[in-house]
Design goal:
Blueprint (H helix, E strand, L loop, with lengths): L1 H9 L2 H20 L11 H12 L9 H4 L2 H29 L5 H11 L7 H26 L8 H16 L20 H16 L1 H22 L14 H24 L11 H12 L16 H13 L12 H15 L6 E2 L2 E2 L2 H28 L5 H12 L14 H16 L1 H8 L19
Antiparallel strand pairs: 1-2
């Protein structure tokens, strides 16, 4: 019994989170090498690459998903995407609670922190809500995708159902995998703007993060209740509750600001370039799709290699920022980016603290944000260095684009993924994995947490500028 208790407490939630991803990638690699999964031979490295890309919801591929894998193989990829984008997050939280001891308040707090729940008792309620929201959104998304398809292009209704389900899951989980030979650039789909709008809604919704979605739903419920009270002329409380928390406000404003600004820039920059083949509203929808997909979705309806250089730099920036916290997306997160902006403004005004919406941001949050930014650039920089060593003939811009895409689990490429050497593929695999579980989580899992100390050293200033 003591031995069991030792095992239950020896694995931290962070370690379990990372190990569960590694195990899932290994299982996926084995399944994708089975003869039933393949139409053509697949090397171990390519199977590992595909499995990692699916589990880490990236979307970078070294082989064509449509031609290389059978229906069984594509189904395995779809399940890996769902498990990597959602299941690992929720179930690792559940099992971390179980392994760490159900009655321990400290361990419940650890799980609460993972789920970003407001109260310890809300952890499992939130898990149920996440599963329910995912099921409803993906089912509704699959239905809309099915209705948007041309029956003449895919005559078989069973194939249309699989296409709809696969792309609904891949979109909501921000994976970017497609069963089409050329993705959404396929001639029969590139002008299907209804399909593109549905996919945009799915990956933006998935990229917002479950805590934000749940908080927004609570906010709408609060508004509806107040409206009903007014209509029924019942007495209202003068107290105005902060239903929409600061996390939701900051991430929602940052998300939609990035979408609007990027869409406008790309619309005018690419009007006579990559958008030239589209007409009317099609130009705007394609610009919107191109502006939203870099923030971890990975789908493309244009050839990114044909973008203006300045547009490519914008795409790299959007990839680096990524989605919102606790979402199916990657990147440094919109909250981290917004905190950096708030910090610049705070320093310019000579303030000692960062204040947002009449709230002071904690020192711990600021430290984590800047650690995430610094670590991301270190990992990406090291990745670029290694790939330029393994593949010296490749363009530096192409390699940098690939590394940013891999770290932010986006899946966009300038066309070099399939041409990477074995060494470079392994580098991208590691970057995708680090990008999904985050370098900060890896460091936390490796270093023993320092217990509280009742002393502090004297404060000393360092010269910065």
């Amino acid at each position: 019994m003591k031995y069991l208790q030792f095992n239950r407490s020896s694995i931290s939630p962070t370690q379990l989170f990372i190990l569960s991803f590694m195990l899932l990638i290994l299982i996926g690699t084995i399944l994708l090498q089975l003869p039933i999964s393949l139409n053509k031979d697949l090397s171990v490295v390519d199977a590992l690459f595909t499995s990692t890309s699916a589990v880490c919801v990236t979307g970078l591929v070294v082989v064509n998903t449509n031609t290389h894998f059978t229906l069984f193989g594509q189904t395995v990829i779809m399940i890996l995407i769902q498990a990597g984008g959602l299941g690992i997050l929720t179930f690792s939280s559940y099992f971390s609670y179980f392994f760490k001891g159900g009655s321990s308040y400290e361990h419940q707090l650890a799980t609460k922190d993972y789920m970003n729940a407001e109260k310890v008792g809300e952890v499992f309620i939130m898990l149920k809500r996440i599963l329910l929201i995912t099921l409803i959104v993906e089912a509704f998304g699959a239905l809309l995708i099915y209705l948007s398809l041309n029956a003449q292009v895919i005559p078989n209704w069973e194939e249309r159902i699989f296409f709809a389900v696969f792309h609904a899951i891949s979109s909501f989980c921000n994976a970017g995998f497609s069963t089409l030979p050329n993705g959404l650039m396929e001639e029969t789909y590139v002008n299907n703007y209804n399909l593109q709008l549905i996919i945009i809604l799915l990956f933006v919704f998935g990229g917002l993060g479950f805590p934000i979605v749940i908080n927004v739903l609570k906010y709408f419920k609060h508004i509806a209740n107040r409206l009903m009270m007014r209509l029924t002329k019942r007495k209202q409380d003068n107290y105005k509750a902060r239903v929409l928390n600061i996390n939701s406000k900051v991430n929602l404003i940052t998300t939609f600001s990035l979408i609007v600004i990027a869409t406008i820039i790309l619309f005018f920059k690419e009007y006579h370039n990559t958008l030239a083949s589209h007409e009317g509203i099609g130009k705007f929808i394609t610009a919107l799709f191109t502006a939203t997909t870099p923030r971890t979705a990975g789908y493309n309806s244009i050839n990114f290699h044909e973008l203006h250089f300045s547009s490519t730099i914008l795409i790299i920036l959007l990839m680096w920022i990524g989605a919102s916290p606790n979402s199916t997306g990657g990147g440094i997160k919109t909250s981290t980016f917004s905190l950096a902006i708030f910090n610049f403004i705070s320093l310019a005004k000579g303030k000692e603290h960062i204040e947002v919406f009449k709230r002071e941001i904690s020192e711990r949050t600021i430290r984590r944000a800047f650690a995430a930014m610094t670590l991301s650039l270190l990992v990406i920089g090291l990745g670029v260095f290694l790939i330029t060593t393994f593949d010296p003939k490749m363009s530096l811009l192409d390699i940098a684009f690939e590394c940013f895409s891999a770290y932010s689990t986006v899946g966009l490429t300038l066309g070099i993924t399939e041409d990477l050497s074995t060494g470079s593929k392994l580098v991208i695999i590691i970057i995708m994995f680090i990008g999904r579980v985050t370098m900060l989580s890896i460091l936390v899992s490796l270093f023993k947490k320092i217990k509280f100390t009742n002393y502090r050293y004297p404060t000393e200033e360092m010269t910065i500028i």
